[in-house]
Amino acid sequence: MNMCIPARIAGKLPLLVSSSSSSTRAAGFPRVGIFRNLNQRRRLVSGVAKMMALSSVESCNAEVIELENSLGAIRPAVEDYAEEAVEALRDGKVIALPTDTLYGFACDACSLEAVSRIYEIKGRKHTSPLAICVGDVSDIERFAVTDHLPSGLLDSLLPGPVTVILSRGALSVLEKSLNPGLDSIGVRVPDCNFIRVIARGLGRAIALTSANLSGQPSSVCINDFQNLWQQCAYVYDGGVLPSGRAGSTIVDLTRAGKYRILRPGSAKEETVAILKKHSLAEDEAG
């Protein structure tokens, strides 16, 4: 078994024996000194080594814990860790996780403290709105007005790399503290099972924004925002995301029969084709 014994200590182990032997011989004791036999000496040396190893292992474990606490806990983005993520969100913490486009910071959209924490982490102005993420397309109507949309439109766009902007409406269960002063909300249902399982488990909307400092390039792997790991309760690693840094396509669907592309993102052509298929016209007035 490899023991985590510091070299500066391991190097002194022979001295513990040799120095004892030298001092006892100088005092006129027999050559064997305080050791009755070689086995007794070996047991003593072994005991010292084991104590040092135990102390060193405890020290190593403490260093690992300290490193984990300072950098944030890194986990694979698999369903086995979804419940852990849900609990973190319920506790008002911020986590980082992959979507179908970019890595994002996420928190409970109903927690004013957690939402404020995301703005603090990103260095973002509170006037810049956050989107929400839900687990399924059928959840959207709890948070935004959808009855003016053609039947099947949302199911054609989502799940996928699209953010739809919709009016909140009077019946929205969203907290008024999220994006105050705005009567619309950006909604995502990513084509990413991990975040959708978390959203279903939370039972509420997840506030979601890109995992980067405001104004900096977006993140397609966790190393892109390594300087921000320590700000998160957990960082879930889904590898390098293949869609590039364009992010989701943002489309305004607040007006009946109209659409307006606010950001081309990674799926503009496909999105526009679906919108036109459902007889929506581009909103020139926007």
UniProtKB/TrEMBL annotation:
PROSITE patterns: YRDC. It is a peripheral membrane protein. Its main location: membrane. GO terms for cellular component: mitochondrion; plasma membrane. Belongs to the SUA5 family. PANTHER family: SUA5 (PTHR17490), THREONYLCARBAMOYL-AMP SYNTHASE (PTHR17490:SF10). Interacts with RSC1A1. Cytoplasmic and mitochondrial threonylcarbamoyl-AMP synthase required for the formation of a threonylcarbamoyl group on adenosine at position 37 (t(6)A37) in tRNAs that read codons beginning with adenine. Catalyzes the conversion of L-threonine, HCO(3)(-)/CO(2) and ATP to give threonylcarbamoyl-AMP (TC-AMP) as the acyladenylate intermediate, with the release of diphosphate. Participates in t(6)A37 formation in cytoplasmic and mitochondrial tRNAs. May regulate the activity of some transporters. This is Threonylcarbamoyl-AMP synthase.
